[in-house]
Design a protein that fits this description.
Elements (H helix, E strand, L loop, with lengths): L7 H22 L3 H5 L6 H16 L5 H8 L3 H14 L3 H17 L7
Pfam families: Bac_DnaA_C
Protein name: Chromosomal replication initiator DnaA-like protein
Organism: Nitratireductor aquibiodomus RA22
């Protein structure tokens, strides 16, 4: 699969969008934004919150996995894995409600914003 390289301005914009998504999930789940942004391995709960953020950036905002990876400081395959895990976990009704709430809040936060 060939991905076109974003212009420096568009890439910066994607980075800012991902930073906002990280801030949203940090606030929603009462997790330190610093912890979410760390590059070293995190606890399972912090990792799960980050995965929900990646999922929202990809599914709700339509960013491709490479863009989400760059914005979250992770590899595209990490984003792919995160989205797969979140989709599988949505079979649990309570978890699905949590993800749905996150999707709605993320969509509302970016409602009037042109991402490209």
């Amino acid at each position: 699969m060939l991905h076109r390289r974003l212009s420096p301005v568009a890439e910066e914009r994607v980075g800012e969008v991902c930073e906002c998504v990280l801030d949203i999930v940090a606030a929603l789940f009462n997790v330190s934004g610093r912890e979410l942004r760390e590059t070293r391995r995190s606890s399972t709960s912090v990792t799960r919150v980050r995965q929900i953020g990646m999922y929202a950036a990809h599914v709700v905002l339509g960013l491709n996995m490479t863009e989400v990876g760059r914005g979250f400081g992770r590899d595209r395959t990490t984003v792919q894995y995160a989205c797969h895990i979140i989709e599988d976990m949505r079979d649990d009704e309570e978890f699905d409600r949590i993800v749905l709430m996150t999707e709605r809040i993320t969509a509302a936060a970016f409602r009037n914003m042109e991402l490209r």
